[in-house]
């Protein structure tokens, strides 16, 4: 039996649960700034900026050197490997800038998709080989949490039983390896919004996926108090003609979570999945106001929905630093309010904040 061979000591458990709780304390959420080089290239292309290491560094320097009060709304930042070792223009490591603000540093650990033969173009995620060594090195380099994104698609015969089981098992194996190395695993099974399915179908699939993930985490003896979940909100497919209110999205989302995610999990930080910045905030706010039991913190781990206005304001020009930081701060604050169910939409959002950020088949 498991209790005879404990996976973690009580000190290790305490460290993990302290880290997880710090990240989501008081309405704080996560800035997902872990775009791979290719994904960042797509973002920069839209604002006509070349995808060089220096341009990626410059944009991220602007985000990370925002006023210290950002630590009231951002508890953690997920970095890509390259960014973890980059410095600001004064020669200070980004990770130290973040830590001095009291922000927990995280790292993307998955290494992209591989096809699952015999399925309708489904994938599993790679990166388990050598993961323990990578985690150990990252921990030494000041990282306290990891992220692994599994992608599941709703389509003809999808997600298949194989894709659900395989991705759940990889997420659980990753989570176990992270915890052995002192990193809190962010477990991200994303049901992507591609397709014309309705809200009810997304809820059905999301429940199946989350139930499989928590079964696998239990099988792998993962300490749930030292994890965070990063799921999709339950929404209709991007091409669905029927539109749903934030309250309907919230009810479907919290129902799915309530049925599948144990109360031992300290926080659920949603991904934004191509929603506009404003929709991501309004939906999060409605989720926190949803009249169902909510034993976990319900917060955000947004990539696009925290950076779209900031990227548009920057446009690759150092002179736009102030406007960029203001745009970022505004979204961070709005989402922190939404994580407490206190966001009030004023109607004064900039154009960029209401634009859909959807990318078809957003796989890596
Ligand atoms: O959906 P969003 O909020 O833009 O991004 C969610 C996310 O998991 O997907 C991206 C691709 O892996 C990551 O950069 C990011 O952490």
UniProtKB/TrEMBL annotation:
Domain of life: Eukaryota
Enzyme category, top tier: lyase
Catalytic activity: beta-D-fructose 1,6-bisphosphate = D-glyceraldehyde 3-phosphate + dihydroxyacetone phosphate; beta-D-fructose 1-phosphate = D-glyceraldehyde + dihydroxyacetone phosphate
EC code(s) of this entry: 4.1.2.13
Single GO biological process annotation from the record: fructose 1,6-bisphosphate metabolic process
Localization terms from the record: Cytoplasm, Cytoskeleton, Microtubule organizing center, Centrosome, Centriolar satellite
Pfam families linked to this entry: Glycolytic
Molecular function via GO: ATPase binding; cytoskeletal protein binding; fructose binding; fructose-1-phosphate aldolase activity; fructose-bisphosphate aldolase activity; identical protein binding; molecular adaptor activity
Keywords for the protein's UniProt record, in alphabetical order: Glycolysis, Lyase, Schiff base
Entry-linked CDD domains: FBP_aldolase_I_a
Xref: InterPro entries: Aldolase_I_AS (IPR029768), Aldolase_TIM (IPR013785), FBA_I (IPR000741)
Principal subcellular localisation of the protein: cytoplasm
Biological or metabolic pathway of the protein: Carbohydrate biosynthesis; gluconeogenesis; Carbohydrate degradation; glycolysis; D-glyceraldehyde 3-phosphate and glycerone phosphate from D-glucose: step 4/4; Carbohydrate metabolism; fructose metabolism
One GO CC term on file: centriolar satellite
Repeat as UniProt keyword: no
Function (record text): Catalyzes the aldol cleavage of fructose 1,6-biphosphate to form two triosephosphates dihydroxyacetone phosphate and D-glyceraldehyde 3-phosphate in glycolysis as well as the reverse stereospecific aldol addition reaction in gluconeogenesis. In fructolysis, metabolizes fructose 1-phosphate derived from the phosphorylation of dietary fructose by fructokinase into dihydroxyacetone phosphate and D-glyceraldehyde.
PANTHER family (alphabetical): FRUCTOSE-BISPHOSPHATE ALDOLASE (PTHR11627)
Complex formation: Homotetramer. Interacts with BBS1, BBS2, BBS4 and BBS7. Forms a ternary complex with G6PD and TP53; this interaction is direct.
Similarity field: Belongs to the class I fructose-bisphosphate aldolase family.
Protein name per the record: Fructose-bisphosphate aldolase
